[in-house]
Amino acid sequence: MMRDCGPATSFQDGGRYGYQRFGVSPAGAMDRLALAAANVLVGNGAETGAVEFMAQGGSLTCADGPLLVSLAGGGATLSVQGHPVAPFTSTLVREGDRLTVSPCRTGLFAYLAVAGGFDVAPELGSIALHRRSGMGGMVGRPLAAGDRLPCAAAGHVAPQVLIDGLTDGLSRADGPIRVVLGPQDDYFAPDTIARFLGECYRVSARIDRMGYQLEGPALIAARGHNIVSDGIVCGHVQVPGHGQPIVLMRDRQTTGGYPKIATVISADLDRLAQCVPGSEVTFRAIAHEEAVRLARQYRARIAALASRLKPAQPDLDSRRLLGLNLISGVVDARDPAVNP
Amino acid sequence: MGRESRGAAGHGAYPRVRPCGDTALTIEFGETIDPDLNAKVLALDAELTAHPVAGVLETVPTYRSLLVHIDPVIADPEALAADLLAMAANLPPTGEAVRRWRIPVVYGGAFGVDLADVAARHGLSPSALIDAHCAPVYRVYMIGFMPGFTYLGGLDPRLATPRRSDPRPLIPASSVIIGGAQAAISSIAGPSGWHLLGRTPVRPYHPGRDPAFLIASGDEIVFEPIAEDHWRVLDKAAAAGEPVADMVAS
Predict the structure, then answer these.
(1) Are residues A161 and A264 in the same domain?
(2) How do residues A282-339 score in pLDDT, each as one tens digit?
(3) Residue in B26, B64, B207 closest to A183 by CB
(4) CB A115 within 8 A of CB A67
(5) What distance in Å separates the CA atoms of residue A253 and residue A184, rounded to the nearest whole number?
(6) Using CB atoms, which residue from B22, B73, B145 is nearest to A291?
(7) What is the total count of domains within chain A?
């Protein structure tokens, strides 16, 4: 049960694919690596639906437990009954427990996953909310205080911790955002492309799941800023007439009519998504072959997360630990299936 | 794949294949709105459907280009770019019969709040405007912008009307609209700077219907004026999942 949360809190998963030809934006989690980390910690597939928090945190009450939960991304932290949960660690919560998600401290997006995922009817194969079209999510809208978030039944999964050097810096490696030039870089003069790659851009306050408006040296298209609409992918850097680039993100439209000077590589989208307004970003062009190599490396990293788990250290708060053991012991003892 | 793969005709020529990062390739047939270009896009799309290529996830036909979404782990983008150009050079004539939909529309009044203004702007009576809008056979060039939003080519050039300088934050679902030289049918309620001529009971997207999406790129559309009473009957049927658009002989 959601007690309170920011206005841009929603169900998100790996996205809604196969319908872009009908104008359906895939949507899906803004930070795929963080979504995957939250999911593997509770034994889920990497793209299982989770609650995405944007910037602001929130609080929830566990209405039916025990339930294994985890939080990852954006430097947000989870507390249960006021006790902080260690980063990248899943934890069991019980009926009546209050879960508190802190605001994102280092980024913008955090993911709360539950073992087995959320039991929400998918629309066109996905529970990801696409706000502009009212698809997916909690009956087509963001989550709000008072919403009950039904959880699918999960097999028993024990608390785990993610190892392998993953720290709070998940999706926040430094360095330029890498792009492949095109598809319409030929609309821009070479010195304009050099400006795009050489200057610093600032993430403006006008950002949402659809696109990130950047501010910096204007990029004027020598051949004009209107093209006959063509297809859009996540990461396209489109340049409208004012010359300030917009990076199109997960809720992008499927088609658009501005020239696209470059495309952010898929391996760097999570990092860009976590850039708060005011962040400075620079872009570096890489060869298409290199982008494909990095995409494969990125996907391998996500696939390997599930093998980078170990059992979580026992909770040092003995009262809490005792409480959990007592509860499960009582339940087990009275369960006729276990003890007829 | 290099920065650009072009057809045999050399620099600046179409078709050409450009990368869209590592997750898609776009094959461009030109940069204008043209039925022949769009026919090539759709023919290549049909070829890819008939002969699936490993690693191709989905395709998005647009006015003048085909966006090919790929899985970079599986696809070989360089080979795919070469394949796309080879296929584009040998497109078979479209064998499939074109589907033609008759779309009922209530024009003007509360259903098309801009009709009178647009007619006055072009020196036409409202009924002459309706006649001009109903006369052509439109071609569905692209579905985009919003789920089921249907972009149409074939608008009478006399009716070309620049988009509103103050876009509306919300127009009703299933609005029959024009903007610039284009015509369209909106699908679900959303923002728009286009001019509202009328409204159809047809739902281009209805999540509870099979198929959920009624109209596809390459289909043909004709509009037929109906009375408001008839609209109410059809709207009820459409809400219950009926297509209420007839397929007619082309």
Answers:
(1) no
(2) 999 999 999 999 999 999 989 999 998 999 876 544 445 444 444 433 333 333 333 3
(3) B26
(4) yes
(5) 17
(6) B22
(7) 2
- Are A315 and A296 in the same domain? no
Mean pLDDT of B69-87: 96
Token pair recorded at residue A338: 């276990």
- Do A110 and A205 have their domain in common? no
Of the two residues B119 and A322, the one the predictor is more confident about is B119
Q: Do A180 and B19 touch (CB under 8 A)?
A: yes
Residue A173: the pLDDT is 60
Residues of chain B found within 8 Å of residue A17, distances taken between Cβ atoms: 57-58, 69
Q: Which helix (H) or strand (E) holds B196?
A: strand B195-199
Query: Would you call A228 and B63 a contact, using CB atoms and an 8 Å cutoff?
Result: yes
Q: Output the pLDDT for position A23.
A: 96
Give the mean pLDDT of B173-180.
Answer: 95
Is A127 found in the same domain as A75?
yes
* Chain B nearest C-alpha distance from A298 (Å): 10
Rounded to a whole number of angstroms, the distance from the CA of A65 to the nearest CA of chain B is 34
Domain that holds residue A291: 177-301
Residues in chain B within 8 Å Cβ distance of A285: none
pLDDT bin (cut points 50, 70, 90) of residue B1 is: low
**Which pLDDT score, from 0 to 100, does residue A153 have?**
80
Q: How far is CA B181 from the centre of its chain?
A: 14
Cis omega (within 30 of 0) for bond into A87: no
Q: What is the dihedral of CA A228, A291, A44, A80, to 10 degrees?
A: -90
- For residue A340, the distance in angstroms to the closest alpha carbon of chain B comes to 46
Judge if A183 and A275 occupy the same domain: yes
Contacts of A251 in chain B (CB under 8 A): none
For position A314, what pLDDT does the model report? 62
Give kind and range of the element (H or E) at residue A318.
Answer: helix A318-334
Cα nearest neighbour of A230 on chain B:
B62
Delineate the domains of chain B, giving CATH numbers in brackets: 5-89 (3.30.1360.40), 100-248 (2.40.100.10)
Are residues A264 and A151 part of one domain? no
Domain annotation covers residue A340: no
For residue range A250-263, list pLDDT tens digits in order: 999 999 889 999 99
Q: What is the pLDDT of residue B250?
A: 74
| Cβ(A274)–Cβ(A31) below 8 Å | yes
CB contact under 8 A, B62 and A253: no
One domain for residues A65 and A207: no
C-alpha A239/C-alpha B112 separation (Å) is: 33
- Answer whether B151 sits within 8 Å of A229, measured CB to CB: yes
Site from B11, B20, B71 to mutate, A interface, most A CB atoms within 10 angstroms: B20
Q: Could you tell me if residue A132 is inside a domain?
A: yes
Percent of chain A topping pLDDT 90: 79
Question: What are the chain B neighbours of A129 within 8 Å (beta carbons)?
Answer: none
Are A32 and A162 found together in one domain?
Answer: yes
At A232, which CATH number? Answer: 2.40.100.10
Coil, helix or strand at residue A325: helix
Residue A208 pLDDT > 70, yes or no? Answer: yes
What residues contact A215, with CB distance under 8 A and at least 6 apart?
A201, A202, A203, A204, A244
A218 belongs to a structural domain: yes
Which candidate from B31, B142, B148 shows the least CB-CB separation from A227? B31
**Does the residue A339 lie in any domain?**
no
Pairs of CB atoms within 8 A across A/B: 149
Q: Return the pLDDT at A56.
A: 96
Which member of A135, A228, A236 has the closest CB to residue B147? A135
